Amino acid sequence: MMIILSKASLENVYAAFVLANGARMEGIEAEMFFTFFGLEALHNKKLEHLHVATVGNPAMHLPTLIGGLPGMEALATTMMKKEMEKLDMPGVREFLDILKASGVRLWACKLAMEMFHYTKEDMYEDLDGVLTVGDFYKQGSGIGTHMLFI
Amino acid sequence: MEKMIAQKNILVNEEGYLTNFAQWDKAVGEEIAKENNISLTPKHWEVINYIQDEFKKDSPLSIRKIGKSGVVDIKEFYALFPVGPLKTATKIAGVPKPASCI
Q1: Most buried of A38, A96, B26, B93, CB within 10 angstroms?
Q2: Do β-strands A2-5 and A31-34 pair in parallel, antiparallel, or remain unpaired?
């Protein structure tokens, strides 16, 4: 299972992490490729401060204007984190540790790294490497490989 | 349904999990492990005992919980039960498959 994460709103990051971890729990190989804003989920200074999106998300059932008020994102994020803790969901850093311990390989997108001026030192310590899109496709070229874009 | 495991008729579900924990014993565990290509070491038994204790306490299992058990860390757990560790370990331990996504 190759999972590409291109966003870093908390709900997308968790979806990608649960899918990768779930694959390993079923005995399926899993790798993740973090690109564009998805890189925030690997960035040491940012990964613990990701937010739920309250604007542009009709499923929040919150009028866009209210969702845009200061503090709304933080409030929604706190509420979501509380619910997740009840379900024994780890925080982002601990989840990365669990993924690595479970054998998930983590790759950062070279182009996006350059665009955001990130270096490997800025990122989660156990990152497996920085890849071009071509390298990532090569990683996923085995028969029966599935790719998910989040 | 019933399945012959270690010369005994054992009640299992369609995935091979025991439906009556009282029918479990070490020989049953060993035979299920063999079916899953695992030869049990003392470390495996420590994990199996932990899983059974949690089951008796009605406390739900997850990978995160196993990692915090103090018995094994997650990396070791995957090394002991390489393919689907939580699924395989619970099957050997004779307890139901955990209904957990994490």
Answers
A1: B93
A2: parallel
Strand-pair category, B2-5 with B8-11: antiparallel
Q: What is the pLDDT of residue B6?
A: 84
* Alpha helical stretches, state H, A46-88: 64-67, 72-86
ipTM: 0.85
Q: What is the pTM of this model?
A: 0.89
What are the structural domains of chain A? 2-54+91-149 (3.40.1260.10)
Other C-beta atoms lying within 10 Å of the C-beta of residue B21: 13
Chain B within 8 Å of A98 (Cβ-Cβ)? yes
Q: Which chain B residues touch A16 with a CB distance below 8 Å?
A: none
Per the DSSP assignment, residues forming a β-bridge with A106 are: A32
Measure in Å the smallest separation between the Cα of A24 and chain B Cα atoms.
7
- pLDDT of A85 reads 84
Residue A131, classified by CB atoms within 10 Å of its CB into exposed (0-12), middle (13-18) or buried (19+), is buried
Q: Indicate the pLDDT class of residue A66, thresholds 50, 70 and 90.
A: confident
Contact B25, B52 (CB under 8 A): no
Which residue's structure tokens are 């156990």? Answer: A126
At position A6, the amino acid (one-letter code) is S
Give the burial string for A21-39 (b: 16+ CB within 10 Å, else e): bbbbbeeeebbbbbbbbbb
Q: Does residue B101 carry a catalytic annotation? A: yes
Q: Contact at 8 Å (CB) between B14 and B96?
A: no
Smallest Cα distance from A62 to chain B, Å: 28
